Amino acid sequence: MSRATRHGLRRLAVALLSAVAGLGVPAAFAGQPVEVSPAGTTSIPAIEVPSSGLMSPEGNASRVEHILTERSLKGRSIADLNAALFGPRLERTKAAYAVTVTPATVGGVPVLIYEPRAGVAKANRGKLLINLHGGGFVGCFVECGGLESIPIAALTGLRVISVDYRLAPAAQYPAASEDVAAVYRTILKTIPARRIGMFGCSAGGLLTAQSLAWFQHHGLPRPAAAGVFCAGGDPTMPGDSRIIGMLLGDGEAPSPPPQPGTAEPPALGYMRGAPPSDPAAFPAADRATLAAFPPTLIVTGTRDFAMSSAVNLHSRLVAQGVDARLHVWEAAATPSSMMSDCRKRARSTASSRTSSPPV
User: Fold this and answer.
1) CB-side neighbour CA atoms (13 Å) of 73
2) Rounded distance between C-alpha atoms, residue 37 and residue 35, angstroms
3) Which of 114, 274, 322, 358 would disulfide-bridge 160, Cβ 3.0–4.6 Å?
4) In angstroms, what CA-CA distances link 72 with 75, 80, 163, 253, 319?
């Protein structure tokens, strides 16, 4: 490669990075080349990236609050972290939506049942949504499950059952899939699969994909539809967003990428030891398993560290002829920031269609 060609590629890389970041190239940065190795590894000089001007103020504030709160809790227990990080948001969500919460046990597994306070809408009686909460397979049942289930129950008029599946370090794969299957199998005694949907966010999104695969390989019918949010179908979460999302979304330095010819870094602790050949553990890698997925909605954000995994899952589902829809939210990273932006946009849409003031 000639010197002129290398120089041209460097200038192009700088221009692309500047466009993606939405800012002009600072003088200090413009003079530093972006190095690209023969293997494709890119070395980028230090650069400041502002918040996206395309994200709502509410969504951006939620993202920053999440990062700063998490940093202030370093060294605290998982329970303390979730209570401080998500507890106040859960209380605001409860105040914003009229929903009842009832603890129960289904198939021997603890659950929380969320219903509209006015009752399940007549058209939705006999229908059900199953929520699989996020939290990295280590916690957050009450907080994350509530943040994911309360708005859904209120806005759709549906009953939502959030599953308290077993977590690491006390449990490892496939314990969570077994718990979800136990709940699903019990529900099927009274509600047909064609009237059941399942969704989850982050770890719960991955578990949703894994549970769909688990159902297939254990003789259970597939539900009518599924939602995989802030996740994909590969526990290792490979791809560019593992780096970009950690930096711009979580404000954390990403783990070093694997060297060429070496294995991916260890999977989530819950998944450690699960063989990559197991389609119920790594559903995105098995075409036959993906081909049997129900219609699937995949939601992610451009600062989500799981965006690459989500895009990959969508591409593979489409390739297998599955009705899969991909929604990508600008600058969204954490589920909470994404939901804040969704609520802002929903209020804006509602106010544009009615003369009544927005709620």
Assistant:
1) 17
2) 7
3) 114
4) 9, 11, 29, 16, 44
Identify the CA nearest to 204 among candidates 249, 250, 160.
Answer: 160
**CATH domain 57-256+265-353 topology:** Rossmann fold (3.40.50)
The amino acid present at 11, given as its one-letter code, is: R
Q: CA 73, CA 186: separation in Å to the nearest integer?
A: 39
Compute the chain's Rg from CA coordinates: 21
Length of the chain, in residues: 359
Strands (E) located in 153-261: 160-163, 196-201, 225-229
Is the model's pLDDT at 12 over the cut of 80? no
- Kindly report, residue by residue over 18-71, the tens digit of the pLDDT: 444 444 445 445 668 889 999 888 888 888 888 888 888 888 888 888 888 888
* Distance separating alpha carbons of residues 148 and 208, to the nearest angstrom: 14
Q: Are 180 and 215 spatial neighbours (Cβ–Cβ below 8 Å)?
A: no
Q: What is the DSSP string of 259-286?
A: PTTSPPPP--GGGTT--TT-TTTSGGG-
DSSP H or E stretch at residue 175: helix 175-187
Nearest by Cα to 64 from 313, 286, 283, 331: 331
Structure tokens, 1? 């490669």
Parallel, antiparallel, or unpaired: how do β-strands 128-132 and 35-36 relate?
unpaired
| pTM to 2 decimal places | 0.84
Annotated domain spans of the chain: 12-43, 57-256+265-353
